[in-house]
């Protein structure tokens, strides 16, 4: 059975994640307040960010960059700025 959360990113009730995908307090916050849909949007942005900045997830400094961008995207309503990326026009 799926669970519903009030998604802080989408500002609506939506299907929640099946389990905590990120460690610690931040992971708990994401599990409780971010929907599957919003997490999927973030995963797409994260991949672009890692590729564009050539980030190495084994590097603690690089993980901090990703975590900051994730918090800003999921909870602060800030989009991830990707150099040289132009979103397709609607």
Automatic annotation (TrEMBL):
InterPro entries found in the cross-reference section: Fe_traffick_prot_YggX, Fe_traffick_prot_YggX_sf
Keyword field: Iron
Coiled coil: none
SUPFAM superfamilies: YggX-like (SSF111148)
Pfam families: Iron_traffic (PF04362)
GO cellular component: cytosol
Keyword Aminoacyl-tRNA synthetase assigned: no
GO molecular function: iron ion binding
Gene Ontology process terms (BP): cellular response to oxidative stress
UniProt cross-references to NCBIfam families, sorted A to Z: PRK05408.1 (NF003817)
Biological function: Could be a mediator in iron transactions between iron acquisition and iron-requiring processes, such as synthesis and/or repair of Fe-S clusters in biosynthetic enzymes. Necessary to maintain high levels of aconitase under oxidative stress.
PANTHER family: FE(2+)-TRAFFICKING PROTEIN-RELATED
Family listed: Belongs to the Fe(2+)-trafficking protein family.
Protein name stated in the entry: Probable Fe(2+)-trafficking protein
Taxonomic lineage of the native organism: Bacteria, Pseudomonadati, Pseudomonadota, Gammaproteobacteria, Vibrionales
